[in-house]
């Protein structure tokens, strides 16, 4: 959040470079006259550049300024969301319905702008048949080919085969 600016009687300079409510420069005036001018318009005198010589003060509605600044920061945070990586784990002997559910879940993540890490997890005797996992990853990538593209694909690492899918719209 932005730092709080000095307003009205909080300003400590003897004179300020005054900017009117429309943004036009009035000139260098004594602080008392600048505060009176702001009060006459039912607005605040806000010190926008305290380090200038003399300090720059603007006549504005400070509450409205704070609200607009907060709203702009909120919008900026909202734009930053997305990105990240989501993980989905599958087993080689997954049922068709469960597979379709995982595909829908990945589709949603990809549309939100996330990349998706798909892991096939093997247990015991399944470790002897890694080609089942490879076929499952191929099928998963094919189901999502309209919204995703394969970014990386790793061979068998321990009990897992991993593939990372990235959203297609962000890439092309």
Question: What is the total number of structural domains?
Answer: 2
**CATH architectural name of the largest domain:** 2-Layer Sandwich
Radius of gyration: 30 Å
Strand order in the sheet with the most strands:
2-1-4-3
What key attributes describe this structure?
single chain; 172 residues; alpha/beta; Ubiquitin-like (UB roll); Translation Initiation Factor IF3; 2 domains; four-stranded mixed beta sheet; 5 helices; 28% strand
What does this structure look like?
- By secondary structure, this protein is an alpha/beta fold.
- The protein folds into 2 domains: 71 residues, Translation initiation factor 3 (IF-3), N-terminal domain (Ubiquitin-like (UB roll)), CATH 3.10.20.80; 87 residues, 2-Layer Sandwich (Translation Initiation Factor IF3).
- It is built from 5 helices and 8 strands, in the order ββαββαβαβαββα.
- The strands form 2 sheets. Strands 2-1-4-3 form a 4-stranded mixed sheet.
- The two termini are 35 Å apart.
What's the helix and strand layout?
Blueprint: E1 15-19, E2 25-30, H1 31-40, E3 44-49, E4 56-60, H2 62-80, E5 85-90, H3 96-111, E6 115-121, H4 130-143, E7 148-153, E8 160-167, H5 168-171
Parallel strand pairs: 1-4, 5-6
Antiparallel strand pairs: 1-2, 3-4, 6-8, 7-8
Can you give me a brief rundown of this structure?
This protein is of the alpha/beta class and 172 residues long. The protein is built from five helices and eight strands, in the order ββαββαβαβαββα. It is 37% helix and 28% strand.
